[in-house]
Every structure is written in C-alpha cells, then in structure tokens.
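Researcher: Structure for this, please.
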Amino acid sequence: MLRVLIVEDNPADAQILQMALERAGVPLEIVVQEDGLKAIDYLTASTRRRCDLVLLDLNLPRFSGFEVLDRIRSSEGLESLPVVVLSGSADTGDVDRCYRAGANSYVCKPAHLVEILAVATQIVTYWSQCVKLPSGNPVVTPIDILS
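Model: Predicted structure, token format:
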C-alpha cells in the first residue's frame, strides 16, 4: 500500500486530488495536511506511520512548500523521501528552485478535472508500480527537522 501525504491548503484542490488518486485503482493510504508546519509535524511525529510519497503545493501558509522541501531534504531520515511538487505555478524560476532543492518531480496542476484525474493516475502508477521506493524510514524527531 502506497502511503501518500498531500500538502495542500486549498480544501477543494485537496479533495479533488484525493478523489483522483483514489480512482487510480492502487491501494492507497492518503493523509492531507493544509499547511507546511502541519506537514512537518506529521512527518516527524514518532507515533505516526510514515509516508512513502509527498505531493507538495508551493503556496502554503506558515511554511511555504519551498521551506517544507528544504526541511525534508536537510533532515536525516527524510532526505530520501520522494517529493513531487504539484503546483499551479509554471514559472521556470520555481521549477528550477524546486529541483535544486531536491524535488523528485515538478508537476503543474492541470486546470480541468479530466486532466487532474489523468495526472493523478500517472503519478500513483509511477510511484507505486514503476519505481522501487527507499526502505526503512527511521523515526525523525521534531527537534531534528526544525533545528
């Protein structure tokens, strides 16, 4: 089962993305966090089951998607966690910045529901069936990631 963390502050976008992922036909466990700080807290909570994939929006309250990505990549135990930036921005500066910071993929959010469904299916298929995910996610404490 692929465990996916969606980090998205727009409830409608999060709901559509979650629905699209569920329709992909792959067993999933999906968690949604609506801001960057909550996403970091979720990733570092020792009592929670860790995720296999993060779908990360850039424009988030409290910690931006850029900050979340930087914290993930600089934290022992999270540095190999696959992160797909899923953003409405097609700005080449944003794209380049995300790849330099260690994003595994950058996907521009489609505007239409049919396209969202297709992209979500492709993302889930790729990360659940085409690649071998890193094993053994050690527990990371909040102090490790926030320092």
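Researcher: Any notable elements?
Model: The mean pLDDT is 86. The chain has one domain: 2-129.
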